[in-house]
Design brief:
Layout (H helix, E strand, L loop, with lengths): L1 E7 L5 E4 L4 E6 L2 E5 L9 E6 L6 E9 L2 E8 L10 E7 L1
Antiparallel strand pairs: 1-2, 1-8, 3-4, 4-7, 5-8, 6-7
Length: about 90
């Protein structure tokens, strides 16, 4: 099973990673994780906040064979906000 995983900071930089992916910050609280070519297979993605606040939230917005869009924020705030997060993407 192929997989990539990492820790992404709110500014879009990668803190820790398995290698094999890049991150682009699209806008406030919105990130695109560019994943490797997997012959058109869509990954299974799990993401979680890397922030100590209990209201921190991470949402996988869109995903496809070339990558995944992740949105972060806080449940007590409106709109997306920059927040650290962890993720893992796996392919069969």
């Amino acid at each position: 099973m192929a997989q990539v995983f990492g820790q992404v900071r709110g500014d879009g930089s990668v803190a820790n990673d398995s290698g094999g992916f890049t991150v682009q910050k699209l806008s406030t609280g919105t990130y695109f994780i560019n994943t490797p070519d997997t012959n058109g297979q869509v990954p299974i993605v799990v993401a979680m906040p890397g922030n100590a606040y209990t209201t921190a939230a991470v949402r996988v917005q869109e995903y496809g064979p070339g990558g995944v869009t992740v949105c972060t924020g806080f449940t007590d705030q409106r709109g997306n906000l920059d927040c650290d997060f962890f993720f893992i993407a796996m392919w069969p």
